[in-house]
């Protein structure tokens, strides 16, 4: 079959092609001009995304107007098309509705660290039907990047719990537990470990207080103590001291490493503080010819 332009819809076809071509060149020209003017890559990414959406929406409206004529049959055609789309493209429609929710309510945005549907990562892209995250954790410890990009359908914001590490309050609580022997001077160790935690995190206190005041206008965030604290507990093998402190999500591993290195140096130099570890004690019973009498 040879396609000709002598049919009933020749004008509509030509106008549709013309709109697509014009929209394509307008988008290219705008992006080229803005690329020269915007030096920040993050800002250019957001502007490019907005331009893509706007050009697509305007083109779709113009093409729809051409084919539907906006005449008396518009409501009939629109009803039939809507019903068909709702059935055949259910997932796409839900993803688009979720995209509108994401764009308006802003549960997360590009650059935020989130956890959803069992996946943790930094949001690196948002699109009409899906968003992408740079995965963290999984087989990698301390919430560092795995190098994998995970693409998630937008509707996940409706069906799964969403945790945002960044929005509102930009810091998280982290804990480090140190198990000392019962013979250790745990009181001195507790004071020393607190000094170490403050050394690495105390400079954040004023900044965090400002951010909490801002966040409390939108969320019920009521932290009374923002400075590091050390808790004491007793375990089977010794006295456990737990350092609790605030840090940025992306700095969880680096701050933990710095604190641990200082703690290890303190323990190595101290004669009264020792790390506890699993041990076994055996007692020889002389009455039973040197046989083992007790084991723990």
Automatic annotation (TrEMBL):
* Signal peptide boundaries: none
State the compartments where it is located.
Cell membrane
Q: Provide the membrane topology annotation.
A: Multi-pass membrane protein
Domain Mechanosensitive ion channel MscS, first and last residues per copy: 91-166
Q: Where are the transmembrane segments?
A: 13-30, 50-70, 76-102
Native source organism of the sequence: Fusibacter ferrireducens
Upper lineage is: Bacteria, Bacillati, Bacillota, Clostridia, Eubacteriales
Q: Does the keyword Nucleotide-binding apply?
A: no
Q: Which keywords appear in this protein's UniProt record, sorted alphabetically? A: Cell membrane, Membrane, Transmembrane, Transmembrane helix
The molecule here is called Mechanosensitive ion channel family protein
